Amino acid sequence: MRLRHATVVAAISVAAGGSYFALRSPSFSFNDRGGATAFEELRRKISDPSAVVPPRAAQVSTLAGTTAANPLDVLVIGGGATGSGVALDAVTRGLRVGLVEREDFASGTSSRSTKLIHGGVRYLEKAVFNLDYGQLKLVFHALNERKQLIANAPHLCHALPCMTPCFSKFEVLYFWAGLKFYDLVAGKQLLHLSRYYSAKESSELFPTLAKKGKDRTLKGTIVYYDGQMNDSRVNVAIACSAALAGAAVLNYAEVVSFLKEGGTGRIIGARIRNNLTGDEFDTYAKVVVNAAGPFCDAVRTLADKDVKPIICPSSGVHIVLPDYYSPEGMGLIVPKTKDGRVVFMLPWLGRTVAGTTDSQTPITMLPEPHEDEIQFILDAISDYLNVKVRRTDVLSAWSGIRPLALDPTAKNTESISRDHVVCEEYPGLVTITGGKWTTYRGMAQDAVDAAIKAGKLNATNDCLTHDLRLVGGEGWENSHFTVLSQQYLRNKLSHGKVVPGEMDSVAAKHLSHAYGTLAHRVAAIAQDENLGKRLAHGYPYLEAEVAYCAREEYCESAVDFLARRCRLAFLDTDAAFKALPRVIQILATEHKWDKSRQGQEVEKANQFLQTFKALKNAQFHDGKHN
User: Fold this and answer.
1) What angle do CA 448, 14, 12 make, to 5 degrees?
2) Which intervals hold domain Alpha-glycerophosphate oxidase C-terminal (predicted)?
């Protein structure tokens, strides 16, 4: 026991000295195979202001054009954060890469996250009190990846201060020491130093925080920093970056069976169905990577129908409330709720997201939050607020399925590690599962390393993604929105006439943060094609974004846009319902849909939005709740 404790403490000391890389192999390398030159070429491709992703038809042609004699190096199954990350990592190593996703990029877990990029305060606590070196390594890894994710997608990610309320002197001391320890472990990866605020100062920073509760009085708060992101847009940026780097990425393409080599049984590709046309084709690859998230076991059954599951699905429910529940730029983290879980309230895209639950769940394409889970979150946050918390204030509520790595000895999902698992159970098939959003890049690196080994692939260089900016991120600065306001108009059509309008700072800031340095393309569509009208009252989303996403981001359905290109479905379900007809109208023009397809889109979108459990009478307009 003493030896384990000494190991943990020694490792922390190493990390605090900024030598984390002694505990883990380097995340990138400009080696003697031309890594530096390759990296600069990749940066040029992804950041080229005139570059556009290959059209869907070209990606289909590339995948269908492979043969047993001329295969891809790697075929990735799954277009979530991990799968898209694997495709980006592999193609940047000079490999021929394809990716298929049966729905849309980020259609599963990757769009339904907590929106936090976190190092893992809870994991650090477990590492110390359980003397668990595995949890400690997870914290080291996550802290490094947190800093890099924010740096590589600066328009979509940022540091967020999080306030932890303390109701006794012991809690003040305990959380202050614990979060200072978190700062220490972060070392060079630190975002900002944590600090203590008095009860009065805390009330000024977070006006809705209750000073008094049931038999308790606020003694102060500790504020520390983690990261926050627009998760699905980061995912789409990863997929588009992979496409710009040369990978053939294709959403709405489902693997229906594996191709196997005669005699050896080695997996050498997959039979793929284009879910938009119904056509099927074969894609050959030296190695297939299964990165299907919660559905990775379903993919494994295509190789062996009797396979034992290796993931434990866990449900995480979140709700969205009006902005007045939390101040802009400050989150609230409650370390322990009634059942010992963490509950939070975070400002996100002009609203407040609160959560979460953590319970075992069946795997489904459209998970729904249960009413008791929504009420649990409302009850939990009401204990810490001085405003009345109402069910009618819930603008949207959703459930996401976390694909946790299964520990057969664990009694509940709280004790299962969030670390990832990479394995090659069948020749030619590498599976990666578990992990978390923050560490997607490192997970992808491990999966590609395993694929190279499994397929004896000839990569031209080592991993280059550690410092690779995603599309829209290179050269972006916070002031970028001012250029949009100064140079573009937001023209609208009204009764057949063009009505000019200014590109106000709210719309400009939104475009800048959503699209980075490519925001001018969306602004140009708003101006030149008269698509500058807002899609929903009280929200900054423009009609021009629908057209842009259809042309440049593989947006193939109304749900793709409402849920994953813009976030209206997650922010306000009622507003998404109201915007739906116009979104379908614009997509119909872009994709040349007939009336039948438009009707299918209405039905599919309604089915999707009905799983977001907001109340019809929860209306929100221009920052005021009615």
Assistant:
1) 90
2) 463-597
Are 214 and 61 in contact, with CB atoms under 8 Å apart? no
DSSP 434-473: E--GGGHHHHHHHHHHHHHHHHT---SSS---TT-PPTTT
Q: What is the DSSP string of 2-44?
A: HHHHHHHHHHHHHHHTT-GGGTS--S----TTTHHHHHHHHHH
The whole model's pTM is what? Answer: 0.92
pLDDT class of 339 with cuts at 50, 70, 90: low
Pairing of strands 116-117, 220-229: antiparallel
Give one DSSP letter per residue of 553-580, joined into a string.
S---SHHIIIIIIS-HHHH-HHHHHHHH
Bridge-partner residues for 72, per DSSP?
A: 285
Determine the 3-state secondary structure of 374 from DSSP: helix
Give the span between the Cα atoms of 493 and 1, in whole angstroms.
Answer: 72
- Mean pLDDT of the region 178-187: 93
Structural contact between residues 201 and 378, judged by C-beta atoms closer than 8 angstroms: no
d(CA 375, CA 584): 34
Rounded Cα gap, residues 311 and 534, in angstroms: 42
DSSP 385: B
- Pairing outcome for strands 248-251 and 97-101: parallel
